[in-house]
Amino acid sequence: MAFPKTFYRWRPHPWHGLEAHEGNDGVVNAYIEMTPFDAVKYEVDKTTGYLRVDRPQLTSSMTPTLYGFVPQTYCADRVQALSPTSKKGDGDPLDICVITERAINRGEVILKARVIGGLQMIDNGEADDKIVAILDNDQFWKNVNDITEVPPALMERLRHYFETYKLVPGQPSDVVIPEIYGRDHALKVLEASMEDYIDEYG
Fold this sequence. Notes:
Strand order of the largest sheet: 1-4-6-9-7
Number of domains: 1
Number of strands: 10
Order of helices and strands: EEEEHEEEEEHEH
CATH topology: Inorganic Pyrophosphatase
Oligomer: single chain
Structural class: alpha+beta
Shape: globular
Distance between the termini: 30 Å
CATH class: Alpha Beta
Helix content: 10-25%
Strand content: 25-35%
């Protein structure tokens, strides 16, 4: 029996087996690892593609949005060039935070997300940008096209989460967020990460 081309006989790897986007300008596929309900940090296992428990959250703060990554992206030289105070890319897929009005309470889901901006984050000297996006068919947020239109309180929650989510009591933080940028720059970071991926994996 022949399988149709659109059918995956085996589960595709969420990083390497899915597309970054399907041709819609500024709309990407996002693989969600964590939700605002998670008190544990989950991260995709790079070898198997299954979701692995990384660690319990070190502080009481939890991600205020859905959190995951864009498939077939990689943060290396091109991404680092857009983050001039960093030393190198972090060697991971490009992270994405997805805003939606409806509660999605499970990870390991794929969704379409419309890019509106991002946080230029540097973690221990490495470029670790966080793209911010809207669930593409969310009716509540459908008129938001740039990060400047997101309520400042939500952006402050995002900033606070990433500045503290690796914080060890009694030790200084290695995370800085020098800039929150809009849609145009976010699309440049996305494109750079896709080109970095091609350089690394072909």
